[in-house]
Amino acid sequence: MPDSQLPFPLQPSQRNFPTSISQSFVDWFFVAPSEWKRSYPPWMTPALLATFLFCLSAVTATRATQLMGSIAANFWRLLIATLLLACWAHGSGQGWQGAGFSMLFWSGVIGFGLGDLALYMALPRIGSRLTLLIVHCVAAPFAAVVEWYWLQTGLSTTQAGCIVLILAGVALALLPIRRKGNESTLLSTAGILYGLVGALGQGMGAVMSRVAYDINAKEAFVLDGLGAAYQRILGGLMVAAVALWYSKWKSPFSEAPLQETTNTPNHAPAKGKAWPFVLATALAGPSLGVGCYQWALKTTPSGLVLPIVATTPLMVIPLSAWMEGDRPPFRSIMGGLLAVVGVILLGRLSGT
Asked: What are the boundaries of each domain within the chain?
């Protein structure tokens, strides 16, 4: 915003760290475009793109699982994404190259494979709002602690405060309303445990990706985001294939009868209608979304990237209101505002 449009003009000397509350708000949130361009951290762009794409993936994945079933939808989306990413990775000469391949592969086993499988199992048991709350909010601090112990990285006090603000906003917006009627305690406990496994898988997978980039850097090998996503998704596809095969014989992964209203994986017409949604979620999630996600992790600690991605459920709120008629309560709106402010502050502090 030009200075002429501000409530009061800013002097050149006021372009630095704010010295008053009023100046703090104006100078930090309404800086001139040139100032924002110089201070805006580059890692925010891929992190925000990943957040938006993950939002689209979640919307389409919900419909795909209703028509095809959780385990089958998860496998086919990973298979489609693997084929798409393989075209890019091998076409660009990256393929399975790099000393960090094995680390990225096992990162995919934990993150794409076990983490996403647990997430899909938690959805029909405790609902999408509580599942996303657990997965996205627990993953960020877990990744930060693992990086602190493993990679000797750290976060400043102000950055940690912004992370707390983001996660608090997400928690406030997505805290589930108490369900009516009696629910099985065992069923609810299983859903929460699946959600925690999904969160730990996402957090650990992110840290292992950072380690893989460090290994490649020591060998002077450059691997872009889509190439890294391809090497990771191979591990996830292996886990998804084993889960699909095992579910045909003995299914401890069977969807709970909570809220999967149209789970008819053997119904041919419904399964046929699911393919456009499977393709969409494969493009938005494991392909382009994870590519942007790996792009961000390439140069930034996961403790900073994951809180941005944690706002994904907030971006679903307006889409669900438009497509499903789900009107968010005032609490959700306030939580979204808190999280967005936290994202802006985190970007500004990291940029300076």
From this structure: 52-176+183-351
